[in-house]
Design brief:
- The structure is a single chain.
- The chain starts with a helix and ends in a 13-residue tail after the last strand.
- The chain contains one helix and twelve strands.
- An eight-stranded antiparallel beta barrel has the order 1-4-5-8-9-10-11-12.
- Helix content is 9%, strand content 56%.
- With 240 residues, it is mainly beta.
Amino acid sequence: MKKFLLAATALVMSFGGAQAADLPSRKAPPPMMYSPAPVYSWTGFYVGASIGYGWMDKFNTAGPFGFAPGGRIALADPHGGGVIGPQIGFNYQISPMFVAGVEADWQGTTVGGGVIGRRTPWLGTLRGRLGVTPFNPSLMVYATGGFAFGDLRIGAFPFPPGGSFSQTATGWTVGGGLEYAFANNLSAKLEYLYTDIGANFPIPFGFTGTAQQRVHDHIVRIGLNYHFNSFGGAPVVARY
């Protein structure tokens, strides 16, 4: 009888152990690792091109030539025209919300004309940019300004008696815009620039000396930039 009870007890205990082995483990699951979506970074070099429209400010500065006395001169027709050309630049993401950079561009234009005959066949700028990304890391709102230069031609176009006068003029520019990164390496921008450039021209008609002439151009343009991401985007942080 004792042998039977001992055998039955052993059988029950072995059956219970087997059932316990089949139960799911109550140990904590291994840590799960995941990567949050990367945040776009503006840091890096870029190249691109822009196209748009420009027009000459009605008020410009004339010396004792250009069919006006010294001082401000009102053009009868502040002619507008197309602008197109390349740009190159570099951005640096200072913080998640602020971006600083520098950009240089060259634009061929058909801005100018009229009876007085002032034209800027080409314009270039070297500007700093300071942007913020308050709404979306991929959308930058920026202000820009710096050095401007260009070809300033004065004369009654297209064929004035005695030809026209041309000088490389220098000055300044200021403006602002929006730039949106719609892909990892591509962004589109909408930009406005105001340029004020001038140069000293020789006084014609047998007079000696020079007189400063200045013109003011307004430019609205759209552009496309390719970003090299030379320094990489924001790091992807793994959490445990």
